[in-house]
Specification:
Elements: H1 2-11, E1 15-19, H2 21-25, H3 44-47, H4 50-55, H5 57-71, H6 78-89, E2 93-97, H7 103-107, E3 112-114, E4 117-124, E5 131-133, E6 157-161, H8 170-181, E7 185-189, H9 201-207, E8 211-216, E9 228-231, H10 234-244
Parallel strand pairs: 1-2, 1-7, 2-3, 7-8, 8-9
Antiparallel strand pairs: 4-5, 4-6
């Protein structure tokens, strides 16, 4: 199976990798579902919403600072690195990721579309087009801080994340749709295929004639439409694929 996938990738003019939580989990990124302390009392669905932010922006920012503190110590794994290596060698390679941790960029991937945002960025609540790089240091970075970050215009900043109940940015979704519509091979890595509209992208690629490859430790809802399935962790399968291309 691996040689056939390597042949398809080698011959492709355009390859897209759609990545999900599985690849980040291999780096040790937790799911942030109340593992410790204060956060045991809350579910992400209760905090990652516009309503929660309107009610108590300080609480929401404390949660995101806590998450950032954990992610700051996480490094890209061999799966992330293998994707960056493939991008450097192939004519056109795009990563579409549902993850917000920024690990693909740290691994060296340059063409990355972050479908659900990035935890290290914030945006203005008055002018959403104003984006701020939020890799802060000092007391305001502490999860215990109640300080609220402000935009240069004075308005409150919010995490640049697509929250529950919000739609994906139309421009970002259009980029993703164009990438899968024009790719020859779609690698689907560590995603369950349950979250829409992203879960519809593999079907769109299939209709456009792409070869679909699933890389996952377990069967998913997308497995039935795959041309090839490489069963195993992304950190093992992707380096093997990179070596075979």
């Amino acid at each position: 199976m691996l040689p056939a996938v390597a042949d398809a990738v080698r011959a492709a003019r355009s390859v897209v990798a759609l990545t999900g939580a599985g690849i980040s989990a291999e780096s040790g990124v937790p799911t942030f579902r109340g593992e410790e302390g204060l956060w045991r009392s809350f579910r992400p669905e209760d905090l990652a919403t516009a309503d929660a932010f309107a009610r108590d922006p300080s609480l929401v920012w404390r949660w995101y600072r806590w998450r950032r503190q954990i992610i700051a110590g996480v490094r890209p794994n061999p799966g992330h690195v293998a994707l960056a290596r493939l991008e450097a060698r192939l004519p056109r390679f795009t990563v579409l990721t549902q993850n917000v941790d920024g690990l693909h960029g740290l691994a060296g991937s340059a063409s990355v579309v972050e479908l659900h945002g990035n935890i290290w960025r914030a945006r203005c609540t008055v002018e959403p087009g104003r984006i701020v790089d939020e890799r802060p240091s000092g007391p305001s970075c502490s999860p215990d801080s109640n300080e609220l970050p402000r935009c240069g215009c004075g308005a409150l900043l919010r995490p640049d994340i697509v929250w529950f109940g919000e739609t994906l940015d139309a421009g970002v979704l259009a980029q993703a749709a164009e990438a899968v519509r024009t790719c020859d091979v779609l690698l689907i890595v560590g995603t369950s295929g349950l979250v829409y509209p992203v879960a519809a992208l593999p079907e769109a690629a299939r209709h456009a004639g792409a070869t679909l490859v699933e890389i996952n430790v377990a069967r998913t809802s997308l497995t039935v439409i795959m041309d090839h399935v490489l069963r195993g962790p992304a950190g093992v399968v992707l380096p093997a694929l990179d070596a075979a291309v």
